[in-house]
Amino acid sequence: MINTNSSIIDEIISKIDILDLISEHVVLRKSGSNYQGLCPFHQEKTPSFIVNQQKQIFRCFGCGVGGNIFEFYKNYYKVDFKEALQALALRIGIDINQQNKSNQYINVKAKLLEIYKLSLDFYQWIINHQDYGVKAINYLNSRNINNDIINKFKIGYAPNNWNSLYLHLKKNFSYEELKESGLFLEKSNGELYDRFRDRIIFPIKNERGETIAFGGRIIEENNQAKYINSPETLIYTKGDNLYSLDIAKNDILKKDYVILVEGYFDVIRCHIHGFENTIASLGTALTPNQGKKILKYTKNIVIAYDSDNAGQLAIERSFSILKDLSKNDNIDLYVLEITNSKDVDEFLNKNGKEEFQEVINNKKLYFDFKLTKILNSWQVDNLQSKKEVFDKCIELLLKIDHPIQVNEMINKIINFKIGNNTLEFKEADIRQRLNSLKYRNNKEEYYKNNFNINFKKLNNEFYMTPQKKLFIQKTLENFNKVKKYVKAEQGIIYFLIERSKAINYIKEKLEDTKFFDEIHEKIKNFIFENSTLEKPVTWNELLKNFTESKEQSIISQILSLDDIDIKSDKLLKDYIKVVKSNFLNHQKQEAKNDIMFMKLQGNNEVISSLLGICQDIEKDIQKLKSEIFS
Hints:
- The protein is an alpha+beta fold.
- It has 29 helices and 19 strands.
- The protein has a six-stranded mixed sheet, with helices on both faces. Strands 1-2-3-4-5 form a five-stranded antiparallel sheet.
């Protein structure tokens, strides 16, 4: 994947039309919605090379090459991506080698910082003057925020006028500079007007304390959005910054833990009561880049998100991100249980510092918190509910690395009671299911932890035997005959881009399921990690992040699919079922292969375990056959 500044790639894509570029080298004729010609990459007499101007891609159905303008340039001139990027950038007047060092780049960044600094001064001047800011001051005072706190957090007010800030700044900055700042919107006639009007202004700062963006909250409840924020600019990327980190970082280092909350008022209220190690993600979901910043200061994270469904989902996403980032370093993620209040701000207003400190003292490790919620969701005398609790417990146990913690959790599960009712889960059943899924998710760890077998050495010896080669060959032959899974995997990727609102549903259904094709799997994981309902991944983002020729070809192939009805729930469910079935059957075949090899080795202990795993997989296959997706 490419790490080059994505704004440069975006600019090149927006300014170079793929049809213009390819027409310089290939004779193209209109054919329906596409343009068609002879492929420049292989010899052919019948045109199989198409260019889609609307989607800005090309594809040859003869040799399989395809992609965007960068991929065409790479293949035509036999250069790598960096050389193609440099050449195409020069075509629109950008020198990549000098871009990050150029005076122009530095000047634009400096201008934006200056615009935001002067804008903050303006908003603060407004709020501190009786004639203009009384409305905002009265609102903040009604929420128990006094002038000292207003000044500490540099809170301001945007007056209820269309162009107050614009008139204030235009004498010092050009039209283009102000437009670039994101602080203004553009009318149809080209005039600029203020983005923030009649709103409390919260400055968003980087770690150095420079103002890089604003968040604005309405004062009176109406039909407007409660919060609006600055758009992303050269100095501000939403997913890279944390509210109040510049103020909180010293206290985080001193106390060696951070309190992570959702909103501006949650942060401010915590600081008022002495919890100055509190910060907020800008939006509900924590991002990997925000996680990296937190882990620079501490590996002890206390999450105090709202008690609604969005807050609970954000806790799970935050844990997943932080766990991935920490790798082999242990992190301690705790969750605060805020009761009788919708958020931290309300709780502190009602109960004060001492009771909040008590909540912190009683914080729960993420796994304990999650397990308690799962167990308490059990509906007594409901068999389906019991099955769901079992599956969710297993899913949670799989995420725990330390065996002692796993043992403690299993004890909690088998001893759990609601009144006089027990779940009656058997430890042997729990461990059998765990072993089965661990083998299926990571054979190397399974063999190492359960049988002290070096999987890599075993695998090397295995591959050298004629028996193993025969097993592998037969397995590949079986799966190569069935191309249905390829279409299903590509179809799901198409849905993820074209119907991004289905991403959470697809994630849930494909939990612990991998795509058979490695590139499909990479693309799927990229979308899962980077797409949100508010900001879904686009085709262009895929094409600029997957720059290998084979990757570009596959993405263009998926993009060219024209027989997928994205409104069809049934089609999506069918794709998911095919992928899950293929994954399970492949795992079953792998387990059978390992059983055959272990028979040659005479390792009966491993054979017994693998037979149980095969039975377990078969149960999942049968369950899938009868499953009706909701």
